[in-house]
Amino acid sequence: MYKTVDVHTIGRCLLVIGLALIFALGAIAPAHAQTPTPNQINAVARELWCPLCNGVRLDNCDLQACVQMREVIAEKLMAGESKEQIKAYFVQQYGDVVLGAPSSTGFNLVAWLLPVLIFLVAVGWLAFLVRTWTRRRAPIAVTSAAAGPSPAPPDAYLKRVDEELKQYE
User: Which residues pair with 152 in a beta bridge?
Assistant: First the structure.
């Protein structure tokens, strides 16, 4: 009437039922978002700038607006958004000023290219000056009395000097 059941078979059934129960509970349980750490918030805030202060990063600014912006960063990190998505959100809200640097498109491209262009022109001008200075003829060296007599000046020069001296006599 009764069939005998092997102990190993019962153990296997209980193991399968237990694993199925664990997976079922894991699927049913609500997924809790992990609260971001201050380091994660500051990693994003370090790449953004305060839209109200001039030249102050968001992670260093103590204005209430910046505190609220860091809270928004925390909320968006909890929602699972990436750093680039959060930065895009703040650019949409406040403009390019929150990136701390002009975008590299349109007229803003001048802000990126002008320093390089000025540097290249300055280097070219300096190279031109050095080239012209090195190509100039060296002045004729004046010989000292110990080295020997200096060459005699031309006769026309001496004649002119004599004429001018006679005018003052």
Answer: none
Query: How do residues 107-152 score in pLDDT, each as one tens digit?
Result: 777 877 888 899 999 999 999 999 888 887 666 655 555 555 566 6
77 forms beta bridges with none
**57 vs 41: CA distance, rounded Å:** 13
Amino acid in the structure at residue 74: A
Full DSSP string of 15-63: HHHHHHHHHHHHHHSPPPPPPPPHHHHHHHHTT-B-SSSSS-BTTT--S
**pLDDT beyond 70 at 21:** no
Spell out a b/e string for 20-38, using b for 16 or more CB atoms within 10 Å of the CB, else e. eeeeeeeeeeeeeeeebee
Spell out the domain ranges in the chain. Answer: 38-103
The answer regarding whether domain 38-103 maps to CATH 1.10.8.640 reads: yes
